[in-house]
């Protein structure tokens, strides 16, 4: 169990972490999501006592990190930044960490085996690939067989095989009843591993919810329809009290009506259809909408362009113009959406 | 106590498992002994041509430690690498993650490094003395002469204190580049220049290396003449003062700053 209360970190005048309060519970993978620069790494560094908070506190199983005796037996952490002396062999690196926490040497061999580094145990990490370095970091985290594990962007730079391995490992660790806290800036990554979700933007808590709840609240479903006779289609739909929203590529989107009903309608009016497909807005879009107002470094001056560039590809997403629709006007999608979401809780 | 023992073991594993430990300490030994031997050979062959006043203050013990001016730089390198290596590689994050009690961490690291340096320093000091006296032949001295043993043990202590001072400074500066860039030129050039120039001599004699070197001299006035306001042990004490100041500053930085 990790508990944060009013955790704050200021660097000069800049507030990197702003009064964060949440707790990470055992037995599930908790995703820690936020855009780059949102304060994820700083928060994690404060959790293990590397950075001292400007305000508030973190408790690990009720204690401050530096009050833990042999902390590796409570919490194992993989930080984003490299934390290994490149000239010390993998085995010796783990050995010196193990010794400081009274962990037997046999455990070093065990974790090296778990992460698949046995063959390079006596090699210097200087020559390790990104993936191997990441595995060594994970081995260090597992060393004390801790009940809490913390991974900062564990799949960054890994190949698909490595990504799959990390995901499986995290799920296995959670299934064993451990607290698993993992950060990422990619919603898609979280959607595959995390059961619980904590979203931050510019150091502030944006959401603390179950993944299922987040999906239910944030996935917009609609039907995409394309026809060579858009004018007639619109009239037919209007006649049924349905308002289609035209998209930039000449198709139309219809909410709150099933594809089956639209297909039957088209058949009855002998309307030619080139496409009729149910769509679901991706979680990535939902996440981007949630944090859009808090993204620190936009690709362009305007938030919307950055958002579009990043979230390119179908489905067309929330910024599609929708006059008369219930969704917020596109201009202030980001901030308005995020706040509205919070108020709705 | 059990905790401290564990951290000590861990630090011992750390220091023995990197190559830099071996090559810095081996160079400290080789350079000190080798250069001292060379100087002893030259001194022996040119002794007869020395002016009388130089003969009067001739200190065979001190001559056999001449190589330390250069050998100490390798000791400094060891001290810098032991500490800055943690920061430059990011290892510090793993280290403090495993031992969040920063005082314990620093103390154990320093104790382990100090014991190692003390052993190497003593071996170096006795070797360079014994070899030097052998090479000085009939101008040489022995450990039985008054104050000579003190000077030889002092040589080992001097090297140890030098490494300790460096470690304290490295904890303050963190970056190995910065630590090397400041310490190396300082002890290789600046301190010697300040000590050699008449105007700055009075101040320079209180610098750690200048004061500490006194412990290795047996004949009064052998260190470039001029009476110093402190004796051999006084000099070593001044050096200890510098070491303590550096370590306290290092601890203050380690305690306060984010790792």
From TrEMBL, chain A:
PROSITE patterns: ABC_TRANSPORTER_2. GO terms for molecular function: ATP binding; ATP hydrolysis activity. Residues 302-345 are annotated as: Disordered. Residues 322-332 have a biased composition (Low complexity). Keywords: ATP-binding, Nucleotide-binding, Transport. Belongs to the ABC transporter superfamily. PANTHER family: ABC TRANSPORTER, ATP-BINDING PROTEIN. This is ABC transporter domain-containing protein. The lineage of its organism: Bacteria, Bacillati, Actinomycetota, Actinomycetes, Kitasatosporales.
UniProtKB/TrEMBL annotation, chain B:
One of its GO terms (molecular function) is ABC-type transporter activity. Keywords: Membrane, Transmembrane, Transmembrane helix. This is ABC transporter. The chain crosses the membrane at residues 21-42, 62-83, 104-131, 151-172, 177-197, 233-254. PANTHER family: INTEGRAL MEMBRANE PROTEIN-RELATED, MEMBRANE PROTEIN. It comes from the Bacteria. GO terms for cellular component: plasma membrane.
């Amino acid at each position: 169990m990790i508990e944060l209360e009013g955790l704050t970190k200021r660097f000069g005048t800049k507030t990197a972490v702003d009064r964060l309060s949440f707790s990470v519970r055992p037995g599930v993978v908790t995703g820690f999501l936020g855009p780059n620069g949102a304060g994820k790494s700083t928060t994690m560094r404060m959790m293990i006592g590397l950075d001292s908070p400007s305000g508030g506190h973190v408790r690990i199983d009720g204690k401050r990190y530096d009050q833990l005796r042999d902390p590796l037996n409570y919490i194992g952490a993989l930080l984003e930044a490299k934390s290994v002396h490149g000239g010390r062999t993998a085995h010796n690196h783990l050995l010196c960490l193990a010794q400081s926490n009274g962990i037997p040497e046999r455990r070093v061999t065990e974790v090296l085996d778990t992460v698949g580094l046995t063959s390079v145990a006596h090699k210097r990490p200087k020559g390790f690939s990104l993936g191997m370095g990441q595995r060594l970091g994970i081995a260090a985290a597992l060393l004390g067989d801790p009940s809490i594990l913390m991974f900062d962007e564990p799949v960054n730079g890994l190949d698909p095989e490595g990504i799959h391995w990390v995901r499986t490992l995290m799920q296995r660790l959670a299934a064993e009843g451990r607290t698993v806290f993992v950060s990422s800036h990619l919603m898609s990554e979280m959607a595959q591993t995390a059961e619980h979700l904590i979203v931050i933007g510019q150091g502030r808590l944006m959401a603390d919810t179950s993944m299922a709840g987040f999906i239910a609240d944030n996935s917009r479903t609609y039907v995409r329809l394309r026809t060579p006779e858009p004018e007639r289609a619109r009239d037919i739909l209007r006649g049924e009290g349905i308002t289609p929203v035209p998209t930039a590529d000449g198709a139309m989107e219809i909410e709150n009506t099933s594809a089956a009903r639209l297909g039957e309608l088209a058949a009855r009016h002998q309307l030619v259809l080139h496409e009729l497909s149910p769509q679901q807005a991706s979680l990535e879009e939902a996440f981007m909408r949630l944090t859009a107002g808090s993204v620190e470094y936009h690709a362009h001056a305007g938030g919307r362009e950055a958002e579009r560039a990043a979230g390119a590809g179908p489905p067309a997403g929330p910024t599609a113009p929708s006059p008369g629709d219930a969704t917020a006007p596109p201009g202030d999608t980001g901030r308005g959406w995020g706040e509205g979401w919070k108020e709705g809780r | 106590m059990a905790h401290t023992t564990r951290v000590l073991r861990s630090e011992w594993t750390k220091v023995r498992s990197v190559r830099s430990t071996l090559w810095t300490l081996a160079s400290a030994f080789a350079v000190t002994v080798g250069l001292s031997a060379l100087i002893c050979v030259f001194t022996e062959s040119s002794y007869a041509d020395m002016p009388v006043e130089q003969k009067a203050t001739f200190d065979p013990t001190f001559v056999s430690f001449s190589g330390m001016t250069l050998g100490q730089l390798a000791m400094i390198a060891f001290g810098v690498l032991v500490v800055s290596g943690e920061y430059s590689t990011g290892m510090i994050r793993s280290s403090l993650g495993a031992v969040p009690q920063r005082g314990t961490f620093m103390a154990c690291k320093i104790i382990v490094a100090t014991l190692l340096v003390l052993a190497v320093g003593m071996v170096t000091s006795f070797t360079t003395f014994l070899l030097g006296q052998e090479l000085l032949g009939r101008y040489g001295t022995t450990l039985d002469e008054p104050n000579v043993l003190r000077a030889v043990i002092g040589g080992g202590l001097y090297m140890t204190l030098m490494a300790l001072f460096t470690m304290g400074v490295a904890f303050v500066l963190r970056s190995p580049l910065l630590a090397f860039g400041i310490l190396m030129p300082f002890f290789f050039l600046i301190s010697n220049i300040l000590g050699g120039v008449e105007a700055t001599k009075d101040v320079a004699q209180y610098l750690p290396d200048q004061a500490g070197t006194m412990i290795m001299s047996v004949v009064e006035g052998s260190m470039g003449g001029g009476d110093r306001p402190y004796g051999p042990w006084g000099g070593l004490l001044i050096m200890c003062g510098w070491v303590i100041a550096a370590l306290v500053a290092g601890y203050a930085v380690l305690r306060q700053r984010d790792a």
